[in-house]
Design a protein that fits this description.
By secondary structure, the protein is of the alpha+beta class. The protein has two domains: 137 residues, Nucleoside Triphosphate Pyrophosphohydrolase (Alpha-Beta Complex), CATH 3.90.79.10; 84 residues, Orthogonal Bundle (Arc Repressor Mutant, subunit A), CATH 1.10.10. It is 29% helix and 27% strand. It is built from seven helices and ten strands.
Length: 235
């Protein structure tokens, strides 16, 4: 086999920023690293790209190993390649973010990796440049959520308006006016009101809604400018 002469070989890895929502808080799934360097410290779930797979395939494999999930919404963010990011060996990591409903999949998460959910305001110190990866993932998620209803990937099949508001507030780290949020949400025409109510939060309860997937495809732009002053919230 002909090789490029005079070139240093590099390792390529993937790291997955896994966002989850429990109905109240937006969270990130972290693991305790099982090997040196930085053994037992908190880390994103990751692994090396194997010779017979693409980065996307490697990220899909890593996510399945941790959660048992396939077909999850996942998106590549960017490559992180500072020469000193991994003290063990020169490694370039391609970061991805994934969106899952915590309640739907919490029992499938592997105990092998000592995984634990953390709120975004309570993330422990992380290895390498994983904190930078999370910051970048959150910024990308804010941008995408302002123009595209991808946040429904974090919700169960039926949900309440307060739950959706909690999710948006967690994404943008802000407080949204309840009435204004509900009015704009209903104006999209993308939600179907259900007969059932969630009475966990109050005696009166809140009606459940479902996303109208057919209307969603037709009215993709209904969420444009859904977030007030998006330029101020995307930083």
């Amino acid at each position: 086999m002909t090789r490029y002469s005079g070139q240093t070989r590099l390792l390529v890895a993937v790291d997955c920023i896994i966002f989850g929502f429990d109905g109240q808080d937006l969270k990130i799934l972290l693991i305790q690293r099982g090997f040196e360097p930085e053994k037992n410290k908190w880390s994103l779930m990751g692994g090396f790209v194997q010779p017979d797979e693409s980065p996307d395939e490697a990220a899909t494999r890593v996510l399945k190993e941790l959660t048992g999930l396939e077909g999850v919404y996942m998106e590549q963010i960017q490559a992180f390649g500072h020469p000193g990011r991994d003290p063990q060996e020169r490694t370039i990591s391609i970061a991805y973010f994934a969106l899952i409903d915590i309640h739907k999949y919490e029992k499938q998460i592997s105990d092998q990796y000592h995984a634990e959910w953390f709120t975004l305001n309570n993330i422990p110190p992380l290895i390498f440049d994983h904190t930078d990866m999370i910051k970048m993932a959150r910024k990308k998620l804010r941008y995408k959520a302002a123009i595209h209803p991808i946040l429904f990937e974090l919700l169960p099949g039926k949900f309440t308006v307060p739950q959706l508001q909690n999710l948006y507030q967690g994404i943008y780290d802000t407080v949204l006016d309840k009435r204004n949020f509900s009015r704009k949400l209903m104006s999209t025409g993308l939600l179907v009101k259900q007969q059932e109510k969630d009475k966990a939060g109050s005696k009166k309860g809140a009606f459940y809604f479902k996303l109208d997937k057919k209307q969603y495809k037709k009215k993709f732009q209904a969420f444009l400018n859904f977030i007030p002053n998006p330029d101020n919230l995307l930083n």
